[in-house]
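Figure S4 source data
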Amino acid sequence: MKTSRKISRVLTLMLAFALLLQGIVFADDLPFIDVSPDAWYYGDVKTAYETGLINGRSATVFAPDENMTYAEAVKLAACMHQLKNDGKVTLTTGEPWYITYVNYAKQKKLISGDLVWNDKATRAGYMQIFAQVLPDISDPLNNIADGSIPDVPMSHKNAAAIYKLYRYGIVQGVDALHNCNPGSNIKRSEVAAILTRMMNESKRISFSLGGESPTEKLKIAEQPKNKNMTKSPTEDLTFSVKISGGKAPYAYKWCYQYESEKIEEKSQKTSDKTNSITLNVSDKKGVFFIWCVITDESGQTVTSEKAKAIPKAADKLTITQQPKDGQMTAATQEFTFSVTIAGGKAPYSYGWEFFYGDGSVATTTGETDKKTISTSYVVSQSAIDQYG
């Protein structure tokens, strides 16, 4: 009984292995007459071809030195992503032939927009696409310090993707100095090597470049918070942002504006991961918006969410002290009248009206931030006597 079970398990494993190899052609030699066994890429082309990752231009021609277009690159990336995640490839050609792969790549965020699909892909452009297929890991194979690839500064638009492939052992550069040559077009032989290393971790290349550890991704850890103003018309308010990762020092650029007004900026550079700014905010110009753009030493940039300062809601406007009557003691006399208010929101517009016995009215208007408003007027006794 035990022997029978053992044989059954062996047969099951053999069957599973046979099914795994279905559709994969293994040969002692490649069918391509233009791929020499002495070429550096022979093993990569052989592996990529035998596992169905890449085909020849014809049954006997691989064309290792030909360039790849962006359409072809996106097709490979889409198929590899689907194979890794779904265990099979179900994508088929559309009209134009690459549209199905483009739509899949957009949906899975392998690309962010359209490229010139029939253009030849640059090495940097190809790496940007394929870096998205690889999952992020905290402990990559290689120690590649920021800025250590000679021709790829951290300010390069594709630096993050290129450094990722170096650190994961997918690429090692085009020469002994590990230059990337990012602007050159990528060859089919190089693509075969990249595909093989991405699908088979045992084929990845281990090396180090520079002495520092890879920089963690720069992120916003705590966003600036909204503030409600408690004073009027102005108040000093402090806004803060906290980051994680990145490489010190950090440049903090605070941007702020009152609604539709122009944006103003204040910049600070520090090694601290928390940064604050205090500004005198007015409640006379509407809602105040503020946000922070942070750039680290390696060139990574992140932008915070917009925080806002909300003006204090005005209390109900009321009169707390009315103008007082005056008693004339001379034929012509100057009187001062005052009114005191509470609540509301400065500035205050006012209008004084003086009524005479003959029906005429004198008006004085103005605007002030003061809570007590006064005016003076000369009154004639004769005018009062004449009209009662």
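Figure S5 source data
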Amino acid sequence: LAVWRSNWIDAHYAYFTGFCWVFPLAFAIPVAVKNLAEYPGIGFSCLVGTENLNTYLFYPVAVYMYPAMICHVVTVGKMIRLAAMSSKIDTGLSQLSTDARMKVTTTMQAKRLLRGQWRPALMVGTVMTSLTIFWLFYFVDTHSFAKTNKDTVWLQQWVGCVFMQAKAGKSADEMQTVCAQGARPNLPNIHWFTAAEVLLALLGVVVAMVFITKAEFWEEWGYLLNNLLHRGKRGNGSRSSSRGSRSPANDGHGSNSPTTVNRHPSTHSNSIGEEIARKGGPMARSMNISQGLHNDMNGSSGAPGVFRSN
């Protein structure tokens, strides 16, 4: 937490990780043990019975979402305040006290972090909005509709209306048009229902936007695909080169004789110099100059013992 100049979360990271695993399981296990899940349902409530939505879905999710949104809003507010303060600072860091320099450093970190805050803000904001609207939809309409059964008065009236219209020879569309008028006040509002379902569907789109708009996402995928596509070529090349370097005397059956390694320093240095000269570049030119100087001083080229400059 660079903005708050605190490593409290890092110091307790193990506890946070344990909480993030144990807390959801504490509500998911009773649903499985008591067989409280049901289908069909509305939206993500199909995982839990309507009468158990608050206990096993809304309350646990709210424990995560609302505190996270509050913390994010407070942190972003502090970052904006620090960024506004930094624009008023004209003196150099060398002329400030230690506390002032630390404050300016924190402000510059806040500016850098503020540019990347739209992704977590969009993520948390979308989840919280979806949860709130769906929760309101559940409290206003769905909760009362869940209590409907075969003994409900308005439902019996609707069924009777359908039979009467069928005896009158009306079509299915005409029956629904006439009988829906009596059932409409007791059904969930179509606008609430549409908003709840659309926001839940948009949640996946927002999650995709958060990740695919990061350059690192495409770079990592490109790196992975590049490795997968070129791994076979590198493997075939290494196998062919190993077959080609096999000694004819071995006839492909190998040899039990020990391998002799030349550790003479001059030979090893010359091999390195040849490799650098083969690749070219400034390093190669400097190696050529030093090699020529070495040969001239030792009399290996031109007149013995005569220093010749390149």
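Residues 8-140 form one domain. Residues 237-269, 281-310 have pLDDT under 50 and may be disordered.
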